[in-house]
Amino acid sequence: MAQPGDPSTGPTASETPEPTGRPGDPAPAVDPPEHASTDTSVDEYPEGYPHEWAADVLGSDGRAVRVRPILPNDAEKISRFHTSLSERTRYLRYFGSRDVLSERELRRMTHVDYRDRMAFVAELGAEIIGLAIYERLPDSTFAEVAFTISDQHQGRGLGSIFLEHLAGAAAECGIDHFEAEVLSENRSMIQVFRRAGYEISRSFDGSTLHLEFAIDPTEALTNVRNSREAAAEARSLARVLNPGSVAVIGASDQVGKIGHTVMRNLIGNGFAGPVYPVNSDATSVQSVRAYASVRHIPDPVDLAVVAVPAASMSEVLDDCLSKGVSTLVVISAGFSDMGSAGVVSERRLVSEARAHGMRVVGPNALGVINTSADVQLNATLAEVVPGPGRAGFFCQSGALGIAILAAAARRGLGLSTFVSAGNRADVSGNDLLQYWDTDTSTEVVLLYLESFGNARKFSRIARRVARNKPVVVVRRAVDDLESGVEGLTANAIGGLFRDSGLIQVDSITDMFDTATLLAYQPLPTGGRLGVVGNSSAVGRLGGDSARQQGFTVSHAVDLGAEASPEQFREAIADALARDEVDSVLTVFVPPVATDPDSYAEAIRAAAAESAKPVVSTFLAGEGLPEGLTVTDESGVAARGSIPSYPYPERAVSALVRARRYAEWLDRPAEEPAEYPDIDRARARELVDSLSQVHAGTESFELTQGQVRALLECYGIDIVDYRVVTDVDQAVMAADELGYPVAVKAMSDRWRTRSDQSGVRLDLADSAAVRHAFALLQSTTGSRSLHVQKMATKGVAVTIRVADHPIFGSLISFGLSGMLSDLLADRAFSTLPISPSEASTLLGRPRAAAILDGYAGDAPVDRDALVELMGRVSCLVEDVPELRRLAIDPGLAAPDGLAVLYATVRLGPPPRFSGNEGPRRLR
């Protein structure tokens, strides 16, 4: 079979149609987007060119590559690319020797319609290093696919990236299957298809393998893609934090200059590799030979720290690109931190850097630190930095970063690595999470996030990382997190963080309190606290704080002011040995003229004999006092060190946070429920039809008939009703439905009123219906009313789904009515939701006790509510177009559940927001 792009496929060159664009596409952008090739003018973009398919991606080696749809003026580049290929690579691609591509072949490759024929190129700088093509087979939803990678870039995972982007584009154009012809000796290409996560069928014809597979996203495919993305981003950050050499651009001998401070810190910290100062006006800087530019450095440069004015960045970037520097740490300000003009230059900086395979930390960054003995990198402006330790720290603000590093050093909290990303134009907290997840020297992750960037991706990655090591996040302003989701209060947000496995704190102090415990002590297995000390007053403060935060004080010992170190050791050991004690708070207030070191050694010795956590209020020191610290062979604080807090309340709060995290880890891994009666094909057909009708609309509300049809696909039935506009229609509807019935005003103003003034219930005959209809039309002013079959009486509840920029789709539960809305008595959970998570959600609203029976009423059927939430969860997972859903009210009764009313809003699914679509740097 001929290969896509061969002259033997499709019409001849003279018959090749010009690109016509994709039906329904918006007009082409006036300006090329950020990822557009830099040597292409606006006029050279054909009509319908899919700018949004362009992406910066990371190869498996962690270096950036640009992938974009091909352009007609790429012919010369494609010709050079083809000529650069080895004879072996050309043979495997074209099944024979082909030294030069003809004009006809080049035209066919570069002139595509971006729908039935599509081609992507991979670029590094101005050169194409890869080409991928699909071509739809006649009158089918199948397409043939092929791709070629230049010899020097094979093995970087570009084939897998091409396959993802081709599949993403094809799916948007109505193609659902790929097939490929591959020579059986082309093992590397066969492996690309085999390892992609698709279910592949194959047949063998002599020397050729015919491969065929559906490109619909599957769980296996998503897992493979996410795993590759995580590995690539981790390797990318490993390049940042483990450089073999560093250049300081703008290095200076002048004290007070940024370039002077960075240079001094690199040298003074004992960086393991060479440091190259770059200064065009000096032959040496701080007694190290200087170079006029990065280009003049004779050896390779891995990391360049930039400390020159923003106006000089273009020249610096050209030098670094020419030298092949892999990472820039831009400390210079004057970009997006200075307004809209700076935003443009910042985007240009990142775009050019990525296009040449580089990553950028910053601009306006404090810098990066790696305390490993093999690296000893301090490429920051910080005068005081912590010693080696187990915590990785990410923040944005440089000024805040300096204070954070100094505070960590005072507390004795050692760091493994530190990154301050400033404006976070490229490298973000998501990248660091991917790195720390695989970094064996990092056991605790600390994040101070002023913004979340790609928030959905953050949520996905953070949940995965939290299963392996604790992630502590300083909470941002609640107003930013609420994001317009009705009823989402500060407490609810805290619950969502806990549900995601993240340890949310309110301040840097709380972060360090928690991190010191997590880094050096085991997690508590329960909430029973033992208190041992020599001050009854301070001990009581700790006990009271524990009770207020949900712990119990199961054992308390006041040793008195005259207690000896040995008495301390025995009392702590006894408390730790008790089955009813899960953790111990020890309080030590030094008596006059007493050496505290012997007491610290006694406390440490007692704790060393137990696997339970011990914290202290050791008023002779804060953080990790010397006597409470266990050190490894290199003298670094190690597991078993006992953190000390100036107040017992802070010690207890750290224990409580650690216990909540332990509870999250202990939750069984339960999958969302599946329901065999769900008709996904019918639901997809309905949604596609509605989306086509409303194409170009930001979002749209479904009619009640459409809502009923969609929910029925998921086994959710709305109690039968009719919409009527006059009294005779009302009576006719009641007769048809069967008595008793209810007559309702369904506008938002009347539907959820707790006084039920917009509804008349239990209407037993036509006379009652006539009276109720006339009364409600007069009272509410509504022209149309609902006549609905009476459901079994129960507790009115509401279930809603809404989008959140950090947590993704959220489901909320509460009692229905204005009072619950006014008090924001709603509980929230992320989706998808498992049965046990749904059951937990039911108990979170303050009014949840009503579900268990109130004032003699029977308890409601909780299983029916759990099932309803499970079915809603399936709907949300299957229909990414769903923007909002509300079931309000549903009636929860002792013997089941009835849905009385629901609303649904659909809109275009979020593009590239988290799990969706092929990999890209976002």
From TrEMBL:
The keyword ATP-binding applies. It holds the Pfam family CoA_binding_2. The keyword Manganese does not apply. InterPro entries: Acyl_CoA_acyltransferase, ATP-grasp, ATP_grasp_subdomain_1, CoA-bd, GNAT_dom, NAD(P)-bd_dom_sf, Succ_CoA_lig_flav_dom, Succinyl-CoA_synth-like. GO terms for molecular function: acyltransferase activity, transferring groups other than amino-acyl groups; ATP binding; metal ion binding. Keywords: ATP-binding, Nucleotide-binding. Residues 65-218 form the N-acetyltransferase domain. CDD domains: NAT_SF. Residues 708-761 form the ATP-grasp domain. Residues 1-47 are annotated as: Disordered. SUPFAM superfamilies: Acyl-CoA N-acyltransferases (Nat), Glutathione synthetase ATP-binding domain-like, NAD(P)-binding Rossmann-fold domains, Succinyl-CoA synthetase domains. PANTHER family: COA BINDING DOMAIN CONTAINING PROTEIN (PTHR42793), PEPTIDYL-LYSINE N-ACETYLTRANSFERASE PATZ (PTHR42793:SF1). This is CoA-binding protein. It comes from Dietzia lutea.
